[in-house]
């Protein structure tokens, strides 16, 4: 329960701030006003007191989960339901600093990219213990409680432990053979047992007694520092003496032993890092290579944790408790999620392989197309992160320009490169694939994205509510955009001439019925009079009106009617904790990353279109299906992940807005830009879609508006949307290939 003593969880609920709610009369003007306003305010306060936090500490989105049963006197009964319903749609955002608050506010603005990840570094004390463990070094002793026999530790033994231990034994044998490397041989022998099962053991850096004191000690004499017999490595070091022989021992180690172990640990580090859940093993190998193996052997002490008393004498270098941690999917490097970090080398491999191996000697077109398509995912993430960082650190005008310019750059890059290739080859199939991808993005963002978010969010929350007014704005624009985009198609079907490739007389009667195949509406009859005089002007008119409607929608939601989102920014600093914004990416750094990512995106899109031709030609799957699935949804995977994360935090409004905004941008920005591009660079792209695209898009928009009508949903409604999407995919899968392919 939130109280006034908790500033980080304070609710703000003022009924008069919402336009739909009746104005509460001022206490000086109406005697009933104070009594009615106070009762309704207490009603709203009761609602807010029962709602839970929807985000992590430092970044909360507060929404009421259910309307509590609060008795209302008759004086407020006629107003309580309407007033308190206005309280339900209120959203209070709390952030650690102004930059993060600006990013959260941008998430609710129409036309701005919705971004879940932080653009600033979160204060360490505000993080949970689980997250702190992810970023901690492996030099902290957390006690010896619990068994070390876990599934993750056994997996380490099977993947790395046995052969790494065997390698240390072989290196130890080589060091003993050289005689001068005997101290390092003994160290490798000890480390062989450690790396076979490092859990429950500690590696320390200890201070070594003076050489003459250690050499005077007998075999059975104990060390006062270690509380046990003097290690064999110390006695071997004393036997070799100091000066020249010690330098020779180090030289032998650095030439014969250390490089081999560095390569082995490097392989372990890279493999464990790519597996993500085994990142502790990667840290273990990296720390062993940089710290343990470079220490003099007499300064390394390996002991079992159960034999160690806290505090320890000497510095703890390594202390690993678990080899696997499932929460490492949250791990970030300089604000970049670990998945995006791991996929970045894939971009380099794709570019090198695509442009160096042009004749396809090393790999085929299918492999290069797959790599290019997968490379688009991390690049989309970096573009989204850069846009969110620039918008959060800039004013509204700069943020709006950046979002409008680069918000659809991922899809437009692929579409334009495909149209250019199709124009050069004289192949109409590329234009049909682009139309399929546009339709697939529209249908997927209207059905699949919100439906999947509803299902996953509904598993955690029984019923989810969202701002129906803000969703209504996007729905209205979506209706307008779909009607405008498909207007030339409907016009061509009304006035176009139906041409069929092959017809057969079924009844053998010249006046009987004919069965025709490969029929389409020909717009080029009579030297293209219908197309050039009627359809093309209509296409240009629609391409002008749709961006104008988009700008009006921006002006409506961001300037004149900002209250429909009802966003409040409040300070959530705990008493005594005041943090300045430490951004992950500065504006200039974000701009450089944005430009580089866009350049790499263009190269990957060029490779994808270059190697898609054999797939379209030789594949038995319909080109419709390839366009509406792979080419349409793969670039949107980062947005889908953001929507799922918002839904898990019971913030379904942003999950729905992600899909709606992408669908609106497809119709109101991307398609007009493609039409504008065809004016300066003639291609085979015309704004006339097949019947399947028209019916699928219109049915999806109608169904989405019906589901979102009441402002609340559950996992069942999400399942309906997802099932309808898969039914449409099945239709596309079994549909014949479009004409020209």
TrEMBL record:
Keyword terms: Antiport, Calcium, Calcium transport, Ion transport, Membrane, Phosphoprotein, Transmembrane, Transmembrane helix, Transport
Highest taxon of the lineage: Eukaryota
Annotated membrane topology: Multi-pass membrane protein
GO CC, any one term: vacuolar membrane
Domain Sodium/calcium exchanger membrane region span(s) in chain numbering: 367-487, 590-732
GO biological process terms held by the UniProt record: intracellular calcium ion homeostasis
Biased composition (Basic and acidic residues): 23-36
Localization annotation: Endomembrane system
Signal peptide span: none
Record-level Gene Ontology MF annotations: calcium:proton antiporter activity
Domain spans labelled Inner membrane component: 151-201
Region (Disordered): 1-36
Transmembrane region(s): 154-177, 251-281, 336-356, 362-384, 396-417, 437-459, 471-491, 538-558, 590-609, 621-641, 662-681, 687-708, 715-735
UniProt cross-references to InterPro entries, sorted A to Z: CaH_exchang, NaCa_Exmemb, NCX_ion-bd_dom_sf, YccF
PANTHER family for this protein: VACUOLAR CALCIUM ION TRANSPORTER, VNX1 PROTEIN
The protein's name: VNX1 protein
Source organism of the structure: Sinosuthora webbiana
Gene: Vnx1
């Amino acid at each position: 329960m939130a109280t006034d003593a908790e500033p980080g969880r304070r609710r703000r609920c003022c009924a008069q701030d919402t336009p739909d709610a009746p104005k509460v009369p001022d206490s000086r003007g109406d005697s009933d006003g104070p009594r009615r306003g106070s009762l309704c305010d207490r009603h709203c306060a009761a609602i807010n007191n029962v709602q839970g936090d929807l985000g992590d500490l430092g970044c909360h989105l507060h929404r009421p989960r259910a309307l509590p049963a609060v008795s209302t006197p008759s004086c407020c009964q006629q107003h309580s339901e309407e007033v308190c319903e206005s309280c339900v749609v209120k959203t209070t955002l709390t952030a650690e600093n102004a930059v993060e608050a600006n990013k959260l506010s941008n998430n609710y603005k129409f036309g701005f990219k919705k971004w879940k990840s932080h653009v600033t570094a979160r204060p360490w004390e505000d993080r949970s213990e689980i997250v702190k463990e992810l970023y901690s070094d492996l030099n902290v002793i957390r006690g010896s409680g619990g068994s070390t026999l876990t599934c993750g530790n056994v997996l380490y033994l099977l993947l790395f432990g046995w052969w790494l231990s065997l390698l240390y034994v072989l290196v130890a044998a080589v060091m003993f053979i050289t005689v001068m490397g005997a101290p390092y041989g003994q160290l490798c022998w000890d480390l062989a047992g450690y790396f076979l099962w490092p859990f429950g053991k500690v590696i320390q850096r200890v201070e070594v007694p003076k050489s003459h004191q250690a050499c005077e000690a007998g075999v059975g004499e104990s060390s006062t520092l270690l509380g046990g017999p003097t290690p064999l490595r110390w006695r071997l070091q004393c036997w070799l003496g100091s000066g020249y022989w010690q330098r020779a021992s180090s030289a032998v180690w650095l030439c014969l032993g250390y490089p081999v172990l560095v390569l082995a640990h490097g392989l372990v580090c890279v493999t464990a890092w790519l597996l993500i859940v085994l990142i502790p093993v990667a840290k273990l190998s990296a720390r062993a290579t940089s710290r343990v193996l470079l220490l003099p052997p007499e300064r390394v002490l390996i002991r079992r944790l159960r034999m160690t008393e806290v505090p320890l004498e000497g510095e703890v270098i390594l202390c690993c408790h678990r080899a696997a941690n499932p929460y490492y999917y949250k791990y970030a490097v300089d604000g970049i999620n670990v998945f995006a970090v791991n996929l970045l080398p894939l971009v380099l491999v794709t570019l090198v392989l695509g442009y160096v191996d042009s004749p396809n000697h090393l790999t085929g077109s299918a492999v290069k197309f797959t790599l290019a398509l997968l490379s688009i995912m991390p690049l989309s993430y970096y573009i989204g992160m850069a846009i969110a960082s620039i918008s959060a650190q800039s004013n509204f005008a700069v943020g709006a320009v950046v979002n409008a310019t680069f918000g659809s750059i991922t899809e437009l890059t692929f579409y334009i490169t495909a149209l250019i290739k199709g124009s050069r080859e004289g192949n109409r199939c590329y234009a049909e694939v682009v139309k399929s991808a546009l339709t697939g993005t529209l249908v997927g963002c209207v059905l699949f994205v919100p439906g999947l978010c509803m299902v996953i969010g509904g598993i955690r929350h029984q019923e989810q509510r969202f701002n129906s007014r803000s969703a209504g704005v996007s729905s209205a624009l979506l209706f307008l955009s779909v009607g405008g985009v498909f207007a030339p198609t409907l016009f061509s079907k009304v006035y176009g001439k139906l041409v069929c490739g092959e017809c057969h007389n079924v009844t053998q009667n010249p006046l009987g019925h004919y069965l025709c195949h490969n029929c389409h509406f020909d717009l080029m009859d009579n030297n293209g009079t219908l197309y050039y005089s009627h359809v093309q002007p209509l296409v240009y008119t629609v391409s002008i009106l749709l961006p104008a409607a988009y700008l009006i929608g921006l002006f409506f939601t961001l300037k004149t009617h900002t209250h429909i989102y009802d966003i409040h920014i409040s300070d959530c600093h705990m008493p005594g904790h005041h943090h300045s914004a430490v951004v992950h990416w500065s504006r200039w750094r974000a701009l450089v990353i944005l430009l580089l990512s866009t350049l790499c995106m263009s190269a990957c899109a060029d490779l994808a279109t270059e190697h898609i031709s054999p797939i379209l030609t030789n594949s038995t799957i319909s080109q419709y299906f390839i366009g509406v699935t792979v080419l349409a949804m793969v670039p949107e995977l980062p947005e889908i992940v953001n929507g799922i994360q918002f839904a898990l935090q019971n913030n379904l409004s942003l999950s729905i807005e992600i899909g709606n905004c992408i669908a609106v941008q497809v119709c109101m920005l991307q398609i007009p830009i493609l039409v504008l591009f065809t004016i300066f660079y003639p291609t085979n792209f015309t704004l006339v879609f097949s019947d399947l695209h028209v019916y699928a898009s219109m049915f999806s928009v109608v169904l989405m508006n019906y589901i979102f009508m009441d402002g609340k949903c559950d996992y069942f409604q999400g399942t309906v949307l997802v099932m309808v999407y898969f039914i449409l995919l099945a239709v596309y899968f079994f549909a014949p290939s479009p004409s020209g392919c």
